[in-house]
């Protein structure tokens, strides 16, 4: 009963098969790139979230929660401005619009 060359190499080697090692290296590299990409995105988002002091270290969870609160605040400001604009249009006298 002869072993194929792949089977023979596997039985003679002390470590994992070369294909498995290459796959692990590729998977690790891809995961490292993904983590760097996510960290970079959090870094960009962090710059947009106002805090005091401005350079305060925040966790990713804190960055997300503060970004949500900031977006809600800005949405509220926009809603208020739109209501003020509508109110000004409806309460402006005809004489003021002519001038």
UniProtKB/TrEMBL annotation:
What terms describe the molecular function in GO for this protein?
DNA-binding transcription factor activity, RNA polymerase II-specific; protein dimerization activity; RNA polymerase II cis-regulatory region sequence-specific DNA binding
What name does the UniProt record give this protein?
A: BHLH domain-containing protein
Among SMART domains, the record links this protein to: HLH
Q: Which residues form the BHLH domain?
A: 22-74
Traced from the root, the source organism's taxonomic lineage reads: Eukaryota, Metazoa, Ecdysozoa, Arthropoda, Hexapoda
Keyword terms: DNA-binding, Transcription, Transcription regulation
């Amino acid at each position: 009963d002869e072993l194929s060359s792949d089977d023979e190499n596997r039985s003679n080697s002390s470590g994992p098969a070369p294909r498995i090692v290459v796959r692990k290296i590729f998977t690790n590299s891809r995961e490292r790139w993904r983590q760097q990409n996510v960290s970079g995105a959090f870094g960009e988002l962090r710059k947009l979230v106002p805090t005091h002091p401005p350079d305060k270290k925040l966790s990713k969870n804190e960055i997300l929660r503060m970004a949500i609160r900031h977006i809600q605040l800005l949405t509220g400001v926009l809603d208020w401005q739109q209501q003020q604009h509508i109110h000004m249009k409806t309460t402006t006298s005809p004489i003021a619009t002519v001038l």
